[in-house]
Amino acid sequence: MKIETRREFCSCRSGSFRSLDRCASGSVASGLKRAFDGGCKRGSNGGFTLVELLVVIAVIGVLLGLLLPAVQAARETVRRTSCVSHMRQIGLAIHSYLDVNGVFPPTKTTYVAPNGQRRDRHNVLTILLPFVEESAAYSAVDWTATWSAAVNREATEKRIPIFLCPTAPGDRDFGTKKYYPTDYASCYLIRRGVREKLGLRDRSEWTSVLLPDFSNSVEFSRRAPVSPSAVLDGLSSSFLFFEASGRPFKFLRGGRRGDPNETPREPLLNSDWADPGSGFVMDAAVVAPDGRFFNNANNNEIFSLHPGGANFLYADGSARFHSETIDAETFAALFTCAAGDILPNGL
User: Fold this and answer.
1) Which end of the chain, N or C, is more open, meaning fewer C-beta atoms within 10 Å of its C-beta?
2) Using CA atoms, how far apart are residues 347 and 331, in angstroms rounded to an integer?
3) Is residue 303 part of a domain?
4) How far is 78 from 91, CA to CA, in rounded Å?
């Protein structure tokens, strides 16, 4: 049997289908009649009915619903990889400083005010400027003035791409105030309140590799500057730099924006890369009721906008992603660099 087109078939079945035997016979004709009956009723153009169109639209909607999460996950994977790359570049800058000076840089520089109190002056990221291809900005810094002084605005009011996580918002200006943020910061101490809340075992010290250039706390058993030989637990087993993402906007667990009018109010303080206050310590407030101790909020805490965890820079220059459900003892072992910790296999 051969029928050239549906139009020819429909012409064959006009009337009471008597002429169908010219085109086909027997069960073949019966099957063709059933298959093409609806098409012939619609006419020779074979258009869709409204119901069929709605079904197609619904199917496309379902497929898009299945596809979009996969596309978003793929994009986040790319962004997280870019974040790791930025952290590695910061690690390379720190090691370049180490090669020149023989010690790790301090987390911040300070000075003694006329009243005898120590004041912060510059952040470690400012110290690293010549090692991240920002030599002009570094040359413009007046190290005798604070980072926010008018004389330093030319150097510090600049957005530096590798100091930003690709997953975080691009524009961080808040109203009329411009910010020059960083999503990476030093975190140099686990305070007693955290240790008690998490039930951590006693250690000989609770500091990480990078330290401020002074200390007035009995919790510091070491002082800056720190040499590689002082990292007794090993460079590949000690955290160096951390994510502190999204500032000056306020984020909470799950990456959702917090109420800007609740304490702490938005915009958050210490958000600029040149601000020595962008570095922080872990205090009791970082521990959530469920025991989670990072990714709870981004107000001077370890916080990432990557789902499920955060990237961490190690003292050997590598960067790795760790789940926010990491065991507290394992985290403490990685945080401290001279406590004689032995890590579990696989880390």
Assistant:
1) N
2) 11
3) yes
4) 20
Range of the domain at 219: 90-335
The answer to whether residue 78 is domain-embedded is no
* Domain count along the chain: 1
List, edge to edge, every strand of the sheet that includes 239-243: 184-185, 239-243, 309-314, 319-323
Residue 32 resides in a domain: no
Query: How far apart are alpha carbons 325 and 308 in whole angstroms?
Result: 8
Residues written for the chain: 347
Is the pTM higher than 0.85? The answer reads no
Q: Which residue shows structure tokens 């962004």?
A: 79
Instruction: Give burial (CB, 10 Å; 0-12/13-18/19+) of 293.
Output: buried
pLDDT tens for the chain, residues 1 to 347: 444 444 444 444 444 444 444 444 455 455 445 544 554 454 455 667 887 788 888 888 888 777 777 666 778 889 999 999 999 999 999 999 999 999 999 999 988 888 888 889 999 999 999 999 999 999 999 999 999 999 999 999 999 999 999 999 989 999 899 999 999 999 999 999 999 999 999 999 999 999 998 766 666 777 888 999 999 999 999 999 999 999 999 999 999 999 999 999 999 999 999 999 999 999 999 999 999 999 999 999 999 999 999 999 999 999 999 999 999 999 999 999 999 998 877 66
In a domain, 183, yes or no: yes
Reading the block at residue 130, the tokens are: 């010549």
